Amino acid sequence: MENNEHKLPSNGTRHDGQAGYTKQARHTRQTGHTEHTGQAASIRYPDARSDPDRRSLAPSEALKAAEYPLRPTVKQMNVRSLWELLFTHRTLTVMVLLFLLAIRLPHIGDSPFGYDSWRQSDTEAMARNFVERRFNVLYPQLNYQGPMPNYAQLELQITTFLIAILYKLFGYSYIAARIVPVAFFIGSAWFVYRIAARRYSAAAALFALLLYGLLPLNLLYSRAIMPESAALFFYTGAFYWFSEWIAKEKRSLLLAAALFTSLAICEKIPTMFVCVPMLAMVIAKYRGGVFKRLELWGFALLSLLPPYVYYAWLGTLAESTFVSGIASKHIVPRFATAAWSSEARQFFATEIPKAFTWTGLVVAAAGLVLLLVRRRDFPLLIWTLAIAAELATIVAVIRFPYYMIFAGPLIALLSAGVLELWITLSRDPNRRRRGGNGRGFSNRSRLAAGLCAVAVLAVISAESYRQVAPVIGIQNDELIRQAEVVERLTEPDDLIVTGTDDPSLLNASHRAGWRVTNSIPGDTVAELDYFVREGAVYFVPLKGYIDGDPDGLLRRTLEERYPKLEAGSEHYIYKLR
Fold first, then answer.
1. Cβ neighbours for 332, distance < 8 A, ≥ 6 positions apart
2. Full-prediction pTM beyond 0.90?
3. How far apart, in Å, do the first and last CA atoms of the chain sit?
4. Cβ atoms within 10 A of the Cβ of 462, count?
5. What is the pLDDT of residues 40-95, one digit of tens each?
6. CA angle 157, 158, 161 (to 5 degrees)
7. Closest CA to 348 of 394, 384, 283, 399
8. Three-state SS for 561?
9. Closest residue by Cα to residue 124 from 80, 75, 84, 174
10. Quick check: 198 and 79 in contact, CB under 8 A?
């Protein structure tokens, strides 16, 4: 008879003629226990004569039993094995993502007329205009600067078009409007996790994921009806896919990186700074031969040409000049000096700690120091320098907090590096204090690292709650009531003039028209006459308030010339024709 023992795998299998591991595995399957006598296990191995149901295993079955460790039965499973089965790393990752989703659901049905009402209501209004006027993602329309259509030179309307699709399917709902950016943010969180997992341990990657989702700026704007979440998704995805291509050199990965980079720039031009660490990575990989790589020229073409064509074409179509050429009108003339202005310094000193918390900034700064000292992971270092350049050249000019959101992934990744160092030190045998078993100090260090990570996340959570809680759920009730009066007293196609520079009242009223002080600044009466000639039917102050009329001249003119509707209410309007 042929001896099959030499065919058994060397992993965990004895070759002393007893086939110990195979018999033990077989016996465990049959009896659920082994007997231990002396130094070795004595295996009680019944044969078929004593128990007909327990026949000898065939060689193939023995081989299979040796290769695949047996899972414990329910009776054999203790608390630890149950915990390990239920809470695998993959399960924990999904649980963290679900947690980040859950903390964004309170007040998910709020209107856009809360924080950053201007930007949120513009986004929601464009989604409605897709539904009611022209269902084409390439033709975004705003409600101000006259009668429709009011095409505007804005980012590619991925967020608004997806909201419009949901509106068509389920009707108008602010829940649908907010769930789109929330979903994009969860996608960006997954990319941040994957970037961290490639560079650090699994525990550090989970730490980065949680910290990224808990930062106050991310909590606020991941649920805002704005394109920032979509831009974050494509921005982090671009870096992830390009890093994967650097490691594996599969063209499909490079194509995915080009697609994500192009869409990121189409969503927000500042995301172009992600190309800086990409360039550093390819120079480090190919040195002087980088310009000879045809696939990299193709990547650059696919990444940069579509955004250029889109913005250039939309500039020729745009009728609403208010948002056209923001880069050329505002950023380019001041980008070299804006960072040194007192306004920029005050803005950064106030808003950066509010956006990322002092704790998050301190831990991220420690991570940046580690990068410099250890001279490793230079793509993150170059990415950090690129973000610093974006803050100095763009955010210093625009000075809106949500423009800082592209620093969020770096804050999380740099902070994860601190936890990774602690874990590495706790596993270093040269740094252990030898105790009775030589492992006590290492175990305590790992426990301390875990407790410190929990403490950091707890403090950041508390700081985030303090920043976000007073803002989430707050609505501009006066504006909403004024808009309800407009909708009740006017027709959908009536052109209106709002007494506010902020277009939120126009958007809340679901009407097109004008805002005061934007057509003929400095001459309120001449501007009113212009509105009437152009077809304005109603003038709508906000609870009687009018921008740009400190001496009350425009109000007196309205009172003298035009009848007041809802005169007995605080939310009245004037009929112009």
1. none
2. no
3. 108
4. 13
5. 444 344 444 444 444 444 544 544 444 444 445 544 555 555 555 556 778 889 99
6. 80
7. 399
8. helix
9. 174
10. no
